[in-house]
Known about the structure:
Shape: globular
Largest sheet: 10 strands, mixed
Number of strands: 10
Radius of gyration: 23 Å
Amino acid sequence: MQRRTLIPAAALAAVSCLISLPAAAQGTWPTGKPISYVVPFAAGGTTDTLGRMIGQQLGAALGTTVVVENKAGAAGSVGSEVVARAAPDGYTLLGGTVSSHAINATLYPKLGYDAIKSFSPVTLIGTNPVVLVVAANSPYKTLKDVLAAAKAKEGGLSSASAGTGSSQHLAVELLGFKSGVKFTHIPYKGSGPAIQDVIGGQVDMMFDTTVVAAPHVQSGKLRAIAVTSPKRLASMPDVPTVAESGIKGLEDFQVQSWQAIFVPAGTPAPVVGRLHDEIRKILGQPDMQKRLAGFGMEPADLNVGQIAAFQKAEVEKWAQVIKAANIKVD
Length: 330
């Protein structure tokens, strides 16, 4: 008799546990409620464009609506904090970048979120290596030329960027940190005016994304010295990587701007898994691959665990550079 009463009790306990699980974990997500895709940057930029491209198809795949919301400010920190505080129910996504989810972790001392602990990664959309460029009439033709000239000049060569703390800025700081050579950073308000002064010879050099720099290289206004990717780019096959320079200390030199999608920490694993799978299907479509290539992006097919490890390594790398260079933001 005792055994017969224990079995129903155990079954009842199991049913009770199932009832208490979040609805999303039981496979009922999404219910038709709109999903918010927060872009922590202004409309019109790469992160915004990617969000709208992915959001439209993701909504169709999930049978709901994905609404893109721009919440710009502090290099992606404002919108990221909004998502960090959102309910972990699968109805809030975030378009994160190397700035919002790696650089800012050290650059902003009073960040309103933890770049790693406040989020769960969903997918890495792709990476965008940067390229070191000089004016077409510059005397520097190789990275060895650049470093030799920087050593010989008081204060080093000048290097433009889109602003303090940008990936362009940190790329030259990383180069200086690893090579032991000094450079003078010249911050601008955006890549446009910065790269124009490199073309005009007012500034010696600049690291910038291939999206911005490649057209000027192709038109003959700039000379590409080296790319910061692990291997040469299909779009710039004749341009060596920094690592290929053979310079001691630069064997593992890499700088990548990247785009990813995150959800608030605590979002149920089945929801994260479904989002990851659906977004990977979207990104794998030939027309989407072509559009990503147009952004100069290299595809990235990592699982959730690999993305987390990649992000952690990025946070640690840029923390080391920011601290060594004593970079501050107002």
